[in-house]
Each structure stands twice: as structure tokens, then as C-alpha cells.
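Anyone have C-alpha cells for Pectin acetylesterase? Sequence:
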Amino acid sequence: MNRVSIWVLSLCCLVGIGLSRSEDGVEELKAKESLLSYLEKDAASPGANSLMVPLTLIQGAVSKGAVCLDGTPPGYHLDRGFGSGSNSWLIQLEGGGWCDNIRTCVFRKTTRRGSSKFMEKQINFTGILSNKAEENPDFYNWNRVKLRYCDGASFAGEGQNEANRLYFRGQRIWSAAMEELMARGMQNAEQALLSGCSAGGLASILHCDEFKDLFPKTTKVKCLSDAGMFLDATNVAGGHTLRDMYGSVVTLQGVQKNLPNTCTSQMDPTSCFFPQNLVANIRTPMFLLNAAYDAWQVHESLIPSSADPHGSWRECKMDHSHCNSTQMQFLQDFRNQMLNAINVFSKSNQNGLFINSCFAHCQSEKQDTWYENDSPRIGNKAVAVSVGDWFFDRTAVKAIDCAYPCDSTCHDLVFNDVTSTITISQSTRLTFTLLNLLSALLITLTCSKCTMEFQFGQ
Ligand SMILES: *[C@@H]1O[C@H](CO)[C@@H](O)[C@H](O)[C@H]1NC(C)=O
Ligand SMILES: *[C@@H]1O[C@H](CO)[C@@H](O)[C@H](O)[C@H]1NC(C)=O
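Reply: yep, here.
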């Protein structure tokens, strides 16, 4: 079926170029970028007749100062609803990590995550964005929007850095985009769902109540956060990688003033960028979809290379089946933290949950994890059905898997550096050979000029 092939053009490691890590670490940034692309969505297998939706730039946003990191206008992709879905709106906030210092933000200006100059002119709508009932049973005929992410602070920053010509305007992008979509018909919505994956999943948590407040009380409004439960966790060396990063993002990008008051009146702003300190206080019905062993967090927050200088966790990080019992216990502890973090949230009748015991990241936009014959399930219910049941109040959905390894329906991400292949176990569909991919992605980089390009196809 949807076999995914990835061709990696790796113009890498040119002979004669020094083998030491370059000063500015551009390759490292590119590697992180590639990892995000891989984890978040780009590996999505487009259907046989995939739906390509064009990019619309919000030109009018520039005069409001609602611009990407480099000053270019933000953008979105809209596919119009039809039939019974004509007055229903789904907004999907794109993810893509964060930039937490001048260097990483300046780098972003050269990518689609910091400039609309580099955004794809059209993208495939799959999973929750698909327009086919057999791929997306409940939302296929809605107006479906993908809002592009180009601010680097989960649509929540406000500020700028003159010296480096950096604009931190995430909050303004959010507002300008909502204004534009209201004008394009969203103001007549009878029902609306704000969604998002990864950094976009965090954004959907941050903006959920604001989104609800755009509409009259009679409009049914809910929010979905996919892979947005980033935990304030301790890494394998006892450090706090993600907290350090969030602290820098919040400070650099002026996020504090846009964080929910209910939190900032009680805690420091960095803590208030962590969903665990926010989700219990969201007024609007919310659904948390997350892998208990979120693949991005395992790689970048729990076992970042900096916390594993001798590589003793590397095998385990690449492939969880290689973790020994001590290491697995560490990952089980992480799952327990996840369950603790959603405990109060889960008590509210209006909220929904799907926490599967998988090593995955972003499961709503990829067709193979959203809705297919062998897509991940809890209690024999696929992600798409669980989210639909909750949105339409068909049944309550509070699905929490038993701990690893009890779930045999996962589409786990496995990184295998020995054979330079990446496979997604269970689904058996992703088996692609990548030149230098892992060295570029995850291992110490040894080349100075790398250009990697991914293409995904049938
Ligand atoms: C698991 O591996 C780690 C890292 O190599 C090691 O420190 C630990 O002792 C191992 N635990 C067991 C039970 O083998
Ligand atoms: C979208 O799908 C088409 C057709 O399957 C494919 O050729 C193209 O590479 C895909 N684009 C992206 C960005 O995934």
C-alpha cells in the first residue's frame, strides 16, 4: 500500500574538506531539522491520488508586523469543505521545534521554518487533512487549513532583534491568520477544531481558549494536541535539556506576555511553556494524543547527544528493542511522568485522551497512523475514530495504553545506524536506505558542507 521511499541526495563530505565539526554547527542544525522533518510529517506516505493544496501567503499580515523570522509574510494552505462539512473548520498548526538563540533563529531564516520564501508552494493533505472519507472519516469534508510555522516559538512570541534582523512575531502571526480565516468564512463556522502537531501541538494548547473565544458561544469548538505533551523531564545525565531550551525560547522571543495568566500568576514563565502546567486549566474541551514514549522527546530531551557523551545510550535511543532493563526503566519512568502530567486533565468529562505505548511522534497527519487497516489502536479503536468519537460526543474517550511492550499495533520509529536504514517496525512500510542519513541526523557530524534533500513518494 503506501510504501514510502525516501531518496536522500547527500552531497556530503566532499573530499578535502576538513573532517572536524564546523565552528558554527550548521550541519548540526541541519541534522536536527532533518530529524524533525522525519519525525513530524514529511515521511507521510501520500495516497495514490494525493491531494496537493496550494500555499496562500497572508500579504496583509506584513503591515501588522505579523511576519516570519526573516520578515516575509506567513502562509497557510486551505482546502474548502463541501456538503455537510461546508460550515465546519479544522485548523492544523504546523510544528517544527523551536529556535532558542540568535544562531539557531538566524539559521531558521534560511529554511521554510523561518521564511515563507522557502515554504513548499503546495503540500499533500493526508491523515486528518485528507479529503477522503475512507482516509479521514469525520473531518474529510470540513474546511481544512494547515497554518505554516515560521516563528520558532509555537506561535507565541513577540519581539524582534534589530542587529540580526530577526522578527519574533508568533503571536501576531496567530492573530493575523485567524483574522484572515474568519474573513474567508470561518466566522460562520458551526463547529471548529484547532489542532497541531509537535511544536504546533504545544501551540494548540497555548491558543485553545483564544480560539474558542473567536466564536459565538453556540459554536462547537474543541482542540486537539498531537505530540504536544512536552514534559519538563530530566535527561539521562541528570540535566534539564528541554527546560533550558524553553527558558531561552521564552526569553529570546518574548513569550511571557502571551502565556496563560492562570499559569503565569502562579509559576515562572518557563514553567508556563510546559503543557503539564497548562492543560488542567484550559476551559475549552481538549484532546491529548501522544505516544507515551514520544520519539522526539526520547531523542532530544531524554537522551540528547550532549547527555550521552560516551554513547552508552545510543543503541537504545536508536531502537528501543536494544534498551537494557535499566534503560527501559528510565523510559517507563518517563511514561509515568506523562500519566501524572495528564492526571487532573483526564478527570474532566469534556476532555479526551489517546496515549499509546509507542515510540512515535505526530500520529494525526500521517495516514498510516491516523486511519488505516493496521493503524495504531487502543481497545481496537484507531486514532481517527477516537478523536471523532470525542469531538462528536459519541462516546467518552480516555484511552491510555498499558505499558510497553503490550501494544502490538504501534508504528514505531526505529533508527538503525548499522545498516543505515530507517524502518518503522510493525507497519513494515518504511524501509529506506539513506546515505549518511543517521550520521547527518543523529551522530557526530563530520562533514562541513552537507546538503540533504528528501523526497517522499509512493
Ligand atoms: C544498561 O546499560 C547502561 C549503559 O551502558 C549501563 O550503565 C547499565 O549498567 C546497564 N544495565 C544493565 C542491567 O545491564
Ligand atoms: C505529495 O504526493 C505526490 C504524489 O504522490 C508526491 O509526488 C510528492 O512528492 C508528495 N509531496 C510531498 C511534499 O510529500
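The radius of gyration is 21 Å.
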